[in-house]
Amino acid sequence: MVANYVDAYQPFYEMNRDALTHALDVFGVEYTTAERDDVLAVYHELDVFADVRDGMERLAEAGYDLYIVSNGNPEMLDSMVAHAGVDDLLEDRISADEVEAFKPDSALHRHAAARTGTPIAEIAHATAGWFDVQGASHAGMQGVWVDRRDDP
What is the pLDDT of residue 135? Predict the structure, then answer.
């Protein structure tokens, strides 16, 4: 994210609100604040892939501690985790807000390791975003790419 490089951090939800507002204004779309906020509310109820809970359960049963490391702000993460129904499988959630840096910035990955008290080399960061694999690997974690689209 550009904000990491220009010292202009803004919480994820606010950044998306501003981007949506700009896009609507540029294209001359008439809207109310309530309508715009209804569009943004989708972030609180994102659906997860059908295999996510099973995969997380298998990892937990194998003795792994599970955390979410996300660019989302804490309120978003709370509602998203509740909507996904995986809260019971998580040790905690770690937000970019805590270090004011978005993934793939290494600062967030190093912060996650420190917060969990786990040596960074012993952490596997699983993600569908190849760029997050790069950030995790650069920070010293193991990057695990969940390729949902059969990309090269």
Answer: 94
- Check: CB of residue 94 under 8 Å from CB of residue 45: no
pTM: 0.86
Distance CA 82, CA 67 (A): 14
Question: Domains in the chain, ordered, with CATH?
Answer: 1-152 (3.40.50.1000)
Tokens representing 74 are: 């804490």
